[in-house]
Each structure stands twice: as structure tokens, then as C-alpha cells.
Request: fold
Amino acid sequence: MSSMELRLDTRGDYYARNFQPSHREGSLILNMGPQHPSTHGVLRILLEIEGEYIIRADPVLGYVHRMHEKMGEVMTYPQYYPNPPRTDYLHALAWNWAHVAAVERLMGIEVPERAEYIRVITCELNRITSHLLWWGAYLLDLGAFTPIMYAFDDRERIQDILQRPTGSRLTYCYYRFGGVSADIDHRFIEDTRNHCAVMKERFKMYKSLVTDNFILRKRVEEIGEISLETCRKYGATGPVLRGSGKAYDVRRAEPYSVYDRLDFNIPVYDTCDAMGRYLVRMDEMQESIKIIEQALDTLPEGDYILPKAPKRPKPPVGDVYFALEGARGKIGFHLVSDGGKSPYRIKLRAPGYSNLSLFSEVAQGTLISDAVSILGSLDLVIPEIDR
Amino acid sequence: MDEKKAKSDTPAGEKKVKPDKPAGVVKAAKQEEKAEPIYTGYDSDCFIERQDLLKAVHKLDQAGFFLEDISCLHISEGFQLVYHFDRFDQPGRMGLRVVLDRENPEVDSISEIYPGASWHERECFDFFGVRFTGHPNLIALLLDPEFEGPPPLLKEESALKDLNHLYPDFAHTGISPESEEFTREVNNCSNQKSRNKS
Amino acid sequence: MIEAIPTQFIIIFVSMLAIMAFVGLNAVVLVYLERKIAGFIHRRPGPYEVGPHGILQPIADGLKLVGKQIFTPTGADSYLYWLAPMISIAPALVCFIAIPFGPHLQVINTNVGLILILAFTGINVLALCIAGWTSQNKYSLLGAARDVSQSVAYEIPLLITVLSIVFMTGTFNLFDIAAGQGAWPWQWYIVYQPLAFILFFICVLAETNRAPFDLPEAESELTAGFHTEYSGMGFAMFFLAEYAYMVVASCVIAILFLGGFQGPIVPGVWWFLAKVYIVLLVMIWIRWTFPRVRFDQLLNICWKWLIPLAVLNLLITLAVIAL
Reply:
């Protein structure tokens, strides 16, 4: 009889109990995640469904929460180097950069030109790897198995290239206060140039093989429409915003490093749907290639790190907010210093956090399959959201 | 406030043309000449009173700002909430600072105006125990909801710093959202100058 | 003693054993083929470690499945729960008795062969429905619900397209249908009924839950659909049944449209197997190439396109026959 009793225990955990009371007659509460193939890690979404239609959706976070913000307060500045890249493991260098640049700005450290160029090149390479993985995983969500293998093929090659200067393949920790940890050599430059040429051909293939596929278009067009106003109310940035028709890119809006000297476009689509976000990312990879090639052409000689860069910095009292464009949107790094060896407070703005928060509004009234498609099109990295 | 404003209007790009300084000298140099521009990332920055928050945020909403995040700080006065706003069309970061007292860390929720603030507020509730009145669903977001114990980001008494220490050259009295000054801050909030220079 | 048992019974008993062996062997070959072809399409080697070129991989897979713990979810009706995989596989085996593998290789040459196959494959829906219902899992339930509406919808165009062939040949007897076609491709019914072939093929993909119509087990949406909770041999039975239905469907396609065992020079059996495997390869190829359709799109395709087209095809066939 014990099995019978267990069956009747449908109260669920704290969140389920909190979610349940207002449910409609005849609806079904479905727990999507934290172990679900298409929630990419450990996102959990409580769904109230009627048939296959979603009435309410409520994301539950915190399954990979590691409290990076607290770690920032108890560690010294250099000890915190490896932490930010581990929040968003797909675009690690952007987070690495956010941390480093925030401290540099607070201290007024001038980064050598060559180091800025190296940062741009490596960060953009990393952006391509991030978008490639998103592309593969998104199509996997839509039931196409093959593209992720092609994406990994290209991604692995970029990782090989990045491995030379950075020494790692995923959670890069390459930037230092005042520059980068190692210079790039001619082989890195050669490999990067070759791979850029290869990638241009691959994008054509991706378009003809995948983007133009009839079934795919039916799955992403007019799905998950996010209006510009919704984006503003929820603070959505990055490809989500640009897929809703606003050319807002931190690289242009608040230029940092040497982006203001490079010529690139901000891809914008005003369809507001998943296809818009898809195409923005596909175009962004090509823009990144353009940026890398330009940066390689104009790479100046000089130091790769400021010779007198502080090993153990003690920034002056004050606070700084540094924002940069990650693969998922605007990464913000709010640093408050009390003049000590470790920060007084670190606040990380994860773009995925804001992007995901609009999901419950957008998912209402869609099918489960569409919800999967919308979730994928937001490009979520859960460790970044949970921090 | 004027000093701060001078600070905030400083172009980010100007930093680049500054000659290299040995790291150790940086701090000393800053103390000598406080007016010298140092990048803060804020194009407009002001303290407002706790009860004025909704009015101020409403004004920002009408001016087309979006909410970047809400950053909470544990200080000896209590808590400081920093609301970071930015704009798509005329980029420029606006910081709204609200100081809450220790005994009653409570402030109006802005999730009515910005639904996206809901999660940021839950996060502050999680990490600091700050309560937001009028929040539709103020439960734990990132931590275990059944977690017992003090909020994890509270500092020890000895480690606490006060506003005068953290923001020495800053007027800590709030300005009214109806005032001319606030409107000017909102309208002039732009990083255009720094972008033009760079 | 021997006389006491009817000959017919012995024949059926022996042939059922042979069919089970055939189905098992096919599953082994198909698992290997599926993985190798997936590897080829993904530009990776596929299974490579067990035996030369990974040829023993299906056996390793099978042993693993046999060795897994069998478990029943809490609150599930264990009798029905374990009955479901058996209900799923049994009709698939029965279907093979009506299939003419060669001019002299058929268990029962019955003149309702086609109806027999269509009827028995329909039982599979029941099995998946029971599996989804008794699993005590919401994902399984959703998968089962999807499967029922999908199968019911696609059964209709399937039957209508079959009818156009039946009207052409005037028989339900599979042997006669195969024998009615010639040895060369231009003598096959695919030339006379190209539209019917395409419709039938699409319906078969949907009926066997193959991608891009694999919604009942759409793993990115429903984790694994109706077989989410099954482990070990329970899962293996569903797996086996899926491949068995694929083989049955390919056999029917080969008989109806590709001339069955007809072919020049080599004996008919080899031709038949070759045709079946070509159809199977196409099915595997499609699976690894296309994304999955959405559920309402799937039903739209059926009700708005396949059924009208199938009816149209039937009417044209009738008109041509009448003239």
C-alpha cells in the first residue's frame, strides 16, 4: 500500500507548492527540468499546460548557483581571475575581460595597444565558438541531430587556435590587469587567417543545408515574438534585442578597447521571432570574422602586457560599472572598492538572466514544442544565469 | 554633486590618451587631484530618497530607459541599492542610489513598472534580506528556499564601511525626482561626448 | 504422434521461430547501420571499438540492455506496464507471415494479406497508449497522447493510398500484387502510381514514429516520450518493435511499389531484401537530415495535404480504370 501513498503525494517541493495554488481546473502541472534534454543544463521550468498549450510558465533557478559574488569579496583581485570565465563557460573571455577591464578602469591602468588587439581577436574567436555551439544545440532542440557535429568540427579548430596563447580550451583565463598573459605568435595568426577563410565557406554551407530548410523555417518563423517594448521592460540585450529590431550593441554604444577603430556592422532583424534571433547570430559570426581579419591586419607591435602592471592591485576607493558585449548580450561588472586588497562588492550582470526573465511572458499560449524553440533561441547558459 | 558630475561626464576615451602611470602611483595621484577624470561607467549618478523611488523610476521609464540590474551593497548605514539604467537610443548609464536603514530594509518594488526587475529584486532579497513591498512573488530565487541562516552576502560588522568612506566626494542626500536637477540628469544622461572623442 | 499435430500448425510454429530470428537479426543489422550511417552523415567514424569497424557493437548494446536492472516506477500498474512492450512487439511478428519474401518463400499465402498487415500494425498504438498511461509519468502520458492522435490521423491517408493500388490490381493478396509487376523498374507500380508512393512513404514515416515525425518520443520536448520510464529489456522490446515495424513497412513498400521479389538474374529473395534495405536506408538518411516538425504542423500536413491528395489519387486511379 506504500506505493499508493507515494502516488498521492503530489504536493511537490517548495516551488511547485508555490506555483500550484492558482492553477486552472483540468490543467496539468509539468516540471520541465532540472534534468531535461532541452533546458541546457539545470534550468527548471514549471509549466501549467492544457493539452499541449502552456498557460503559465515559471523558471526556477539556482541549481548551479555557486555564489561567485561572495567569492569575489573574500578573494584578492588576482585570485578572482578564474572565476568570471566560469560563469559563462561558452564566452569565457568576455567575462574574463569584464573583470579585468573593470579593475583597469578603476585604477586607470593603460593597456598597451597590442594587448587590446589581442583581446579583440581572441574575444571574437570565442564569440564564434559560443555562437557555433548555440547553433548546434538549438537545432538539436528542434530535432536535427547533424548540425551540432558540424558546429563542433569548426569549434574544435578554433579551440585549437585559442589553446596556443591561452593554454586552455573552454574556461579561458587569459587576460591580466594591464594586458594578456602571453603574446600571440605568427602561427596563431596564420592559423586564424586560414580558419577565417574556411569559416566563410562553411557559413555558405550552413545556410544552404540548414537555414534554408523548410521544416526548420516552419519551426522558427513567427515563433516566440518578443516586441521591442518587452525587451526594454525586461532589460533583454544582445541577439534577443537585435532580433527585435534594435541595433544596440555595447561595442558601438559604449565603445571599449579598440572596437571604435574597427569596421563592422550590427546585424538587425525586425521580425522579433526566433528566426530573427537565429539570423542575427549567424550574421554576427560573419561580422566577428570581419573584425578578426581587420584586427590581424592592423595588429601593432609592442608589449602584450604593461611592464609595470600591478601584480597585486589595490584599486582606489570608488565604484565602477563596466559593460561589454558578450555572446548573449550585455555583460555588466559592478565593482565597489574600499581601497583594500579584495573588492568590497562585486555584482555580475548576466545577460541571460534578463533574457530568461521574459520567457514566462512570451511562453504563454504556445505549444510545448514552441517553448523549447523559444528557450533555445534565447541562448541560455545556466551557470551564467545562476552565477 | 558637482564634483561627481564632473567625474561622470568624463569621457571614457580620454583615459586612453593618458600617459602610462606606474601602478603604485595611481592612487596617490588620484588623491592629489580629485577632479582628474577617472572612468566610472556612470554618465549620471544620483542618490534619491527611498519614498521617491517609484516616481523616479517612472520618469526613467518614460524617458525610454531599460533596467540593467539592481546591485545591493551592505554598508554600515544599512544597505545601498544601486539601480542601473541604460538607454537604447541614446546610450548612457544612469545610477539611482537608494539608502535603506539597517532596522527596516524595505523599499517599494519597481516590478510594476519594469517586470524584469522582479528577478533582480528577488536576488537582493535572497542575498541581503532586503524586502520589496508590492513584489508579486518575493521568494528565494537562487538560494534554497528552505535555507536557514543569515543572508550570505551580509558582511561582518568589522568589515562594514560607510558611505563617506566609499563615496567620499559625493553628496549623499537624495534629490527629488520632481526637481529640475533630476530632469536635467535624465535628459543629459549620455555617453555621446566620450564616444565622439574616441 | 506426428499426425496428431496439424501440419499447418507445425509450419506456422517453425516459421514464427524463423521470423523471430529474422526480426532479431534485422534489428542487429539496423542498429549497426543506423549508427554507422549517422556517423557517416555526422562526419565521424561511428562505432569503432567493438570488433573490426565496430561490427560487434549491436551485440554489446544488446548485452548491456539484457544486463540492466528491470524496474517499475512507483505507483505504476506493473501488470499492464510490462504487458505494453509485449503488445508492441507481438503484432509486428505476426505481420511477417503474410509477406512474400520470394516466389517460394511465404508462410501463408492469404488473399487478405494486406488487410492483415494493416490491421496488426494498428495494434501498436494500443501498446504505446498503455505504456504511456501506466508509466505514471507526465511525459509518457503526453507522448502516448501524441502517438494516438498521430497514428489515427495517418492511418487514413495510408489506407486510401493502399486502396488505389488494390483497385489497380484487384486483390489484397500480397503475392499476387508482387507477381503482377515485372522484373524491371519501369514495370513496377511506382511508375504508375508515383504520387501514391510518396504519400505512402510519408505516412509510413509517421506511423513508425521515425524522424521527422518522431513526436511521441521527441527527446528534446518529452525526454523520451512513452518509453521514458522503461529500462533494460522493456525498453529493448520497444526498440525492437520499432525496427520490426520499419522492416514490415519497408517490405510493404517494396511489394506494393517496387516489384517485391521481382528482379532479373539472381533469385527473388535477394532482390526483395535489397529493395527492403534500400527503403530502410532512405528512412535512416531522412532521420539524420531533417529537424522535427511541430505537432500541429504534423496534423496539418495530414488533414490538409495528405488526405485530399490521397483521395485525389484514388479518384484518378478509379477514373483511369473505368476508362
About this structure: Chain B has eight helices and six strands.
